[in-house]
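We modelled each protein-ligand pair independently. The example shown here corresponds to the calcium ion entry; the chain sequence is given first, followed by the ligand as SMILES.
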Amino acid sequence: MTIRLLASFATSLGLLALVSCSSDATSDAPQDAAPDRPLADSTHEASPEAGTDAAPDATSDASADALVPPPDADAGLEAEAPSCISGQMPALKLTSIASGLSAPLFATSPAGDARLFVVEQGGRIRIIQGGAVLPTPFLDVSASISTGGERGLLGLAMHPGYASNGRFWINYTDTSGNTAVVEYKASTTDPNVADPQPVRVLLGIAQPFANHNGGMLAFGPDGYLYIGMGDGGSGGDPQGNGQNPQSELGKILRVDVDSYPTPAPGNMPGGNPHVWDMGVRNPWRFSFDRATGDLYIADVGQNAWEEVNVEPAGQGHRNYGWNTMEGTHCYQPSSGCSQAGLTLPVAEYSHDNGCSITGGYAYRGAAIPCLQGRYLYADYCSHRIWSFVWNGSAATDPKELTAELDPGDSITSFGEDAQGEAYVVTAAGTVYRIEEN
Ligand SMILES: [Ca+2]
């Protein structure tokens, strides 16, 4: 594989590095060649079981450390991101903190809470407390959902004031396969279980195909709930949802949980009033840097390119390009596409290195000082884990962490606890904490 670094790229986001690929399949092929995201059996509606075998093997080599450019000597780091340069980083390791979970795909903690809440695709939320998985699920909505493939219980976000109000929201595909974001609340008598009665369905969004359901939920530093919506599915975005500002599909939505459907103020003008960003394909995990408020969006590619976008705090209204572009490459049309008004990713990798991105977090824990501010992300198929430091205008100081952190299984998600410590969640059912070795 040839590595090619572009010293500059005409984008406001600064430097971009491209990993060139000998088989750059950016054609408008009607089907996805590989599973699309952590849960994926396939991205193609007509053959929902076909995808996994098509996934490329992880033919790992050291070269992909250059997925993002080397540090720019003049760039400097934000005061909020005093990450050590990669050469100073200590060795890292994964420590299993729970296993035997059923298809876990997310882990999070309420602010100030020592427990870790793990989302299982089949519809349960489990609590890890005191080193053990509590036998009684916190919540079980398995009767309310469809699951399998890319469907299921996909996301969870606690209210910033959860400690006092117990409010939380989940994102699942309902029994008809449509997206539902539903509010629940913790029991008033037992903090380790939720009231099984939903408070209310916050919103529902019709899904035209089984795949690309997004699913991420997270409260931003502005107190609004952000919702990751895929393009509706099939392959290639046949409905053109990503570039349709009126559609809620292929978007990052931003809602006020107390006023919805009255829109949150400050969303993207001229389209659906709940849209914050447009032009995403299937954002499989986005996260806010809890120190800077920057928004990291990992967007799963079609057949060739997986990408990470970084949005400075509060600066939404961006068009991330799908399905005009896949990563930094024209998708439709396959050459000569107009990039006017599009925001290109800050990092990307080709399917030589994996099949489906799993976005993580800018580390803000205390246990690994050298990891401060470093963004972690992975590939579902190859289990490769990479990182970079966002310096406010570019992804710098790339470091691959696969040798230390490969769990030997598909990485469905990262997680972050109340202290900012980072976790890796695997399809086989184990949750690991990232620690210094
Ligand atoms: Ca994009």
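The mean pLDDT is 85.
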